[in-house]
Amino acid sequence: MDPQNPTPLKTHLVSSTESPEFTHLTSSLTRSTIIALDAEWKPLRSHHPTYPTVSLLQLACQLGHELDSVVVFLLDLASLPFPSIWELLRDAFVSPDVLKLGFRFKQDLIYLSSTFSSMGCDSGFDRVEPYLDITSIYQHLQQKPPGKKAPKETKSLATICKELLGTSLSKELQCSDWSCRPLTEEQKTYAAMDAHCLLEIFNVFREKVIKEGILVHSSSEHHPPIVNLGLKQVLLEKFDICNKVVRMKFREAVDMVRATDVSNDISAVEGTAIVTQPRNTQPMDEFLLMVASKYGENILLGESDKKPKAAKRKGKRRSSVGYKHGQYDDDWKGPAPWDLTVGGDGHPKFLCDVMVEGLAKHLRCVGIDAASPYSKKPESRELIDHANREKRVLLTRDAKLLRYEYLIINQIYRVKNLLKNEQLLEVIETFQLKVSEDQLMSRCTRCNGRFIQNPLSTEEAVEAAKGFQRIPNCLFDKNLQFWQCMDCNQLYWEGTQYHNAVQKFIDVCKLNE
Fold this sequence. Notes:
There is one protein chain. By secondary structure, this protein is an alpha/beta fold. It contains 14 helices and 15 strands. It has helices spanning 20-31, 82-94, 105-118, 134-141, 157-165, 185-212, 214-219, 231-259, 286-295, 357-365, 380-389, 420-430, 458-464, 496-508, and strands at residues 10-14, 34-41, 54-62, 70-76, 99-102, 127-133, 267-270, 273-276, 297-300, 349-352, 369-371, 393-396, 412-414, 482-484, 491-493. A hairpin with a 2-residue loop joins β7 and β8 (273-276).
């Protein structure tokens, strides 16, 4: 994530129950009334008979009302003894005093429960409550016309962060091997940001709710007069009220027992489930209680969630273009469509799909033609047609594209590396591309266009930028030259960012060696 005013994250890697980090974790869980949850695991091939093993669990604890009070704990499940942390996590997951945030966390909980069960921790985890999903917050924050339903499309967390926070959440490391140790610094930062951004989004939601007074108005409507309800609603309403009274009385009893220091491990029966009360937690304030009541939900795992579903095998269809299904190799064979021996023009050209859009910008920075799809969500056939029409090699990380029957050989390459710098070196080496210092920053990183031949003066640049781009005032006295993209009209100049970028790619491509 690249916020305009980044605040250093307070991140702690917990790899031992005897460490100060673990002590800090247990203390923070008792002082937090809202925590954000996320998990990471090594990806498995599709239709695998078992669930993935969770390697890292992220807990972001907000100890106050401000974001600078957030502490992120990365629980290294490859090192921690499962029985020693199972009860601590279970208590946090079901504590009525802690609101849990997540982004489609049910899948994470299924994998987490399976991981703990395989390590001898009874039934793993079967619930998280009270729980608030970020997708529910996002839908509430959308401004929709009265009478119209919110769109059913669920957006990615990266898209939600971009819209609500104005920041970019990189997902490059999502599919990295989280079982390898030690974790890289990039993996730790990625994992911490994934949990921390959930609290950032919630605080945006908090500000809007408080500003609009939504919960104040709705609280008086939450319990309508029983005389206006039907029998079913009356019974449900009475049950809800009784349940809240029992919870309140139970908390009072727990406080009395704790005051006598007789026991810190007390169980309460709610419905048919026995839930252990977390140790010495602080109750949620009135705002969080109302949020949990109005927008919250519970994640409950059933028996069907404990075993992976058997995959249905689809019959293979025969190809009609001389390519046998399943025989396409993601190792490059060549020649490339721009090769002179097959009638090409000798100029390397690529088409980068959305999974390697960061690679596209890196290729442009070193002067290589790297186009992007015409639409944000192109169909597979559109990508193939685009690559064929312009004699480009399609770069992707989507293995499914390799299995389509209408692929033409030497028109697609699956990038193996996850990080942009490593992807760039992989492409340069695979296709034997020649990169020189003179080529650096010779293409528009925004659209892949070429620059005008003659540079603009400051006065000409200011005139050309009117209406779509602002030239900083500090550049007026520096007598700089400006270059303009011939396709999108974006202006560039040789400032600090330019020189930093040139030096970066000199180092990445090892042009000085």
